[in-house]
Amino acid sequence: MIAVLLGSNLFKNRYAWPTPIRNAGLIIVGYTIGLSMTAAALHEMAVQLPSMLIMTLLLMLLCALLAYLLTKMSNINYKTALLGSIPGGLTQMVILAEETEGIQLTIVTVLQVIRLMMIVVCVPLLVFSPLMGNHKIVETVINSVTTSTASWGSLMPNIFLFAAVSIGCALLGNKINFPTAFLLGPAFSTAILQLTGIHGPALPTPIINAAQIMIGIHVGLMLKPAQLTHKLQVISLAIGSSVVLLFGSFGLSYVFMKLHAVSKSTALLSLAPGGMDQMGIIAHEINANLSVVVGYQLFRTFFIFFAVPPLLRMIFKYSAAKRVIRNTPS
């Protein structure tokens, strides 16, 4: 992403990235998300559904407040600030921004990318700090993460079935205008196949890395710093809002810990705004409650995928209608 960002701005109009390659990356990521939707995770989601909904709504309310503060401290309009502040769906929010009028796409992308990078970097540091009591196992985690990888041989033969179903559902979902079809189609189909008792093999690290490259290059091409006015201000506000969001998540995790008998690490990883796969890996390595972490992360992810886009469209249409009425001579 960074390499393409630099190259595309140094050598303008020389780079292109075919959409089918990005879609292939989304299918792979969707499959890995579907693998996380085990019976245990779905059961945990059902049991704690009220708490999940309340915590997610509180997090969304914090994002809405942050977006309002961003508009007051800069020349960014509220729609742009809101789409840039909502966590847990970089691709989803960028696609929604592309489809919405009056959105500064580059600002949305910059806000989302900086937030995601801050969360992915800061949450592991916080979890492994003495504050959480997990600092003694950092070396063990590093060793296990760097040495554990799915074998290529374990893919056979089920991977052919999962690949065919994932690609088919992605294409079908895209044809019927299903939201983020190339991500959610494989995720749902993989989860359903697993619940029927068919084992979904974990993907080797090179495939996961390739998928991240496919998506990262696409995002890198969307970052156009030349279109940013007040670059330093926008980047500073993005970092500041990400820090506030992180502290807000930490505060909500403390409330969550008091409401349910879970550890500090489980609570924080459950509510960390972004990086479900990274949070799941850390939860597994420190013996946090993986079902709770994955359940909360999945609920927020799908809440953002399904509930947030139509809600935002409704709010934006209502605001536009109010402006028209206000500007119409009586």
UniProtKB/TrEMBL annotation:
<keyword id="KW-0812">Transmembrane</keyword>
<feature type="transmembrane region" description="Helical">
    <location>
        <begin position="49"/>
        <end position="70"/>
    </location>
</feature>
<protein>
    <submittedName>
        <fullName>Membrane AbrB-like protein</fullName>
    </submittedName>
</protein>
<dbReference type="Pfam" id="PF05145">
    <property type="entry name" value="AbrB"/>
</dbReference>
<feature type="transmembrane region" description="Helical">
    <location>
        <begin position="235"/>
        <end position="256"/>
    </location>
</feature>
<feature type="transmembrane region" description="Helical">
    <location>
        <begin position="113"/>
        <end position="132"/>
    </location>
</feature>
<feature type="transmembrane region" description="Helical">
    <location>
        <begin position="206"/>
        <end position="223"/>
    </location>
</feature>
<feature type="transmembrane region" description="Helical">
    <location>
        <begin position="152"/>
        <end position="173"/>
    </location>
</feature>
<keyword id="KW-0472">Membrane</keyword>
<dbReference type="InterPro" id="IPR007820">
    <property type="entry name" value="AbrB_fam"/>
</dbReference>
<keyword id="KW-1133">Transmembrane helix</keyword>
<feature type="transmembrane region" description="Helical">
    <location>
        <begin position="180"/>
        <end position="200"/>
    </location>
</feature>
<dbReference type="InterPro" id="IPR017516">
    <property type="entry name" value="AbrB_dup"/>
</dbReference>
<feature type="transmembrane region" description="Helical">
    <location>
        <begin position="298"/>
        <end position="316"/>
    </location>
</feature>
<feature type="transmembrane region" description="Helical">
    <location>
        <begin position="21"/>
        <end position="43"/>
    </location>
</feature>
